[in-house]
Amino acid sequence: MIAVTTFAGRRVAVFGLARSGLAAAHALRAGGAQVIGWDDGERGRETAADEGIELADLRLLDWSALSALVLAPGVPLTHPEPHWTVRQAQRAGVEIIGDTELFFRERRALASRARVIAITGTNGKSTTAALVAHLLKQAGCKVSLGGNIGEAILGLEPLEDDRAYVIEFSSYQIDLTPSLEANAAALLNITPDHLDRHGTLQHYAAVKARIFANLGPGDTAVCSIDDTHCRAIAAALAERRTVEKVSTEGPVDRGVCCDDMLIEVRDGVQIPRVALGQYATLPGRHNRQNAAAAWALLRSLGVEPAAIARGLASFPGLAHRMELVGQVGRVLFVNDSKATNAEAAGHALDAYDRIYWIAGGLAKEGGIETLTPQFSRLAKAYLVGEAAEPFATTLGAVVPHETSGTIAAAVSAAARDASRDDHPRAVVLLSPACASFDQFPDFEARGDAFKAAVAGLDGVVLGTGGVQ
After folding, report:
1. 191: exposed, middle or buried (C-beta count within 10 Å: 0-12, 13-18, 19+)?
2. What is 93-154 written as a DSSP string?
3. Which domains does the chain have, with CATH numbers?
4. DSSP states of 324-335
5. Which pLDDT score is estimated for 468?
6. How many other C-beta atoms can be found within 10 angstroms of the C-beta atom of residue 99?
7. Of the candidates 115, 112, 147, 102, the residue with the CA atom closest to the CA atom of residue 4
8. pTM over 0.70, yes/no
């Protein structure tokens, strides 16, 4: 745990007592703050009470006595309207920050030389963060990975000068971190998402761009140029600093480009480095972007190409993100439950040629209309959850489909149909293009249901070791 001493002797409210909120409360207490916690949900309050956190209904609190409100990232800050705690804090003139802001204030207060690698983007940020952490470990560095992935940032190992902290940032977390100050930062992509929380795509993009706001002269900015918003951000950055550009669509003047071959560009010279097609845990164009961004970040930190290439070969991938679950005969089973929007699902559909697609859940705006160019890759679709009916309408007569209702039923039907396919590499792919909340508490639970259903199939060989 990273004890937060910057509020020692002062009173701080923490609202939202899930993973990051609990970690913030414990870190503040360990640093000498008086912490008052609250959550709209009874379960959160019960958990906090069991862990010794003092609770008080913030509606009844004297806000003039508070030094800060530490807000969980999932709590609305501006859209669709500020949460009631936000309004209370604003009326009282109390600053509103997140657990990630506490981390950077503590780092500054300690004058820590610990390196911070910050990563954001609409899609791919978890895989890229995990890949960067893996590559640094393989290169012999001390590494902590957290933030929006895995451990809450204040639950990581205490700040050490020789440790690198690889932090995944959601747009919500960036919004609550005005002091975000990385040694290297990457923006992977920007596509419409979370607009209910940001109001417009332009505001969402502006929040994402803040990942670079406090970079110093010797720090590194890595930015994709494969979408309109990222290109504009990269161009604006390039007016005042060097930008390591990343592209899977064509050459760059500096940075890394990647089709199948990852190419590093320095001083206008293209240097082929490694062919990514050989790595089963990094399939598809989106993973080429992830790998290119990771390469650019590692090179900026002084890691040699040979060491990065060795790390890529041993990367195990992430659960629920293009995860190879197993194989029955020639048929692969891939869990991409993290694909909670059409853009993310599109990346998975691009990675395979013959797909038995399990999709559906709680649909997001636009449904799967943007995926029609990939429909030719679909042998059949198996629809689940609330989105089954609208998805069926979009698929129409172009893609054979059936309404399965549940993940288990979909896996059974898809396995049956794929086993009759003579294609050399048919894939049963869970890539829902939907949120999970109609049937599951989160995408992890949905992915676990898929894996359990696959594990129950006759003749299945589980794990990537079974994939041939």
Report:
1. buried
2. T-EEE-HHHHHHHHHHHTT---EEEEEE-SSSHHHHHHHHHHHHHHTT-EEEEEESSSB-GG
3. 11-97 (3.40.50.720), 101-314 (3.40.1190.10), 323-457 (3.90.190.20)
4. EEEEETTEEEEE
5. 37
6. 31
7. 102
8. yes
